[in-house]
């Protein structure tokens, strides 16, 4: 079984999550950061596709939205997993997740994940630091990544693939 993880990572948090997913998924895994890499791949080569990103100013990265738009119909035919890194919790996190991914993909997904997030102030530019300070009163690095949720997400996908 081959899995593709397509993601965008601005400051490294989503990349950390992808590393944990790759370690916990069975079979061959290719991960592609749409923000950095120009890796050429064909979705037809993969049984499972995971798509993830993070929330910045209330929305997921533009490249993730574009990838979904460009591959929407083919994604509906895959074993799909969608995940999001964000610092919000509860209803606001769910709202951000629902806004990030189209409803039909969410309904078609074998696994949905909200993994918490990080404010990596040390990696932010001046503008980002000012926004985070003003909106959230954050002035130093903070993390609330949910490692157990990441492992459970991978486990759910592994169980699905073992049923096939």
UniProtKB/TrEMBL annotation:
Domain Flavodoxin-like, chain residue ranges per copy: 3-158
Membrane-spanning intervals of the chain: none
Family annotation (Pfam families): Flavodoxin_5 (PF12724)
Stored SUPFAM superfamilies: Flavoproteins (SSF52218)
Protein name: Flavodoxin-like domain-containing protein
